[in-house]
């Protein structure tokens, strides 16, 4: 059992206005939820599941998982004087949140040039195809400004980097990484470290290597959790329990993940890799614990979010004008469409068995010499040479390129309706190909919650005393579809604060 704390005091560059808010673009977006009880009252009871015989410790709130959602919930509750036990099964804190880059986009509403909160709400609602919890989405998008002030007050200083594209404002990023643990390689680790220190300053109890095994119920209400700590069974009793134990991507393609076994069996046997955002502790614990006490588990469409990595390098060259093909040299999907659709088309096509990005000399986005020597990055002076370098059938490759180039010449994609402006022929004095790997960054699906982050039973009623936040309940926000870079971290920070504040309003 270990406790972590630490702070990085950073300089401020181009301090954000109080009216600034975060737009989805970059590796992480933040959100904070205001305390609001708007029509949020507990509504039902459920069958009890028994009591624990382990020694009992009394708290106001027990939080399972010390990632972004759990930490934001813990600090929020501790700031209101509540006694909080924060339980993390791994030796380090931060979860997936600690691995994110935390680069984000800030917007001064005074410019009037980009999204405002209402536009962001409308955009995300459209992206979810209406499958999310609208009330929860409204809370997330309407309270984003406060998160910046809240984090800055704790010591998370931010600075402005350069524009990432001409039609977006400059990104904002934390200035340096943290030391929350070996896996905390992203700037999110710094923010996690700051929240840990703040939580402990407020008198909170953080216990790492605390493996929560079950929830404790009494007459239909959840009143705590049982955890194994240093080989000892301990009961953490509280009128509020928040499940913030992450998603279930750890183990995709392997064995032993009960959520994947039951809900995503199609991923068994897929040769998929874990990207940095995929956290080893995310094994679906919170989801299964919730289900054991009657919680509804929901998936709109079982969905895996992630990235593609080319040529053994994260600096991928997959772009709108490239061509993504499988081992049979058949295109996978619309390379200029939504990345989530292309990614999942690749998953459906066969996982990571064989995928290649084909690139012509005229549509190579970067200097190809930078990638020479990278495993999986090859070139050839003609189709036969490229096929030989790839180790694929030359006739099949030639047919694939000829078919695609025909679409490019006609300006009409007869296979996947790629826009004409992205139909660039694969030709030139040198042709390139990169081996593509599917990287698992997380999954969407989990416990159903209402707009106050109360966990819902299968009949749609609330389970007294039980709340959830972050990836453990992310389907209620995403609606089944990854909303883009930053949306996941945005929901973690928002929902953690929503869960804590609404629980306090309900029960404390």
Automatic annotation (TrEMBL):
Keyword Mitochondrion in record: no
Keyword Kinase carried by entry: no
GO molecular function, one term: steroid dehydrogenase activity, acting on the CH-CH group of donors
Domain of life assignment: Bacteria
Annotated keywords: FAD, Flavoprotein, Oxidoreductase
Cofactor (UniProt): FAD
Biological process, per Gene Ontology: steroid metabolic process
Residue ranges of every copy of the FAD-dependent oxidoreductase 2 FAD-binding domain listed in the record: 60-486
Pfam family, one: FAD_binding_2
PANTHER family, per the entry: 3-OXOSTEROID 1-DEHYDROGENASE, FUMARATE REDUCTASE
Protein name according to UniProt: FAD-binding protein
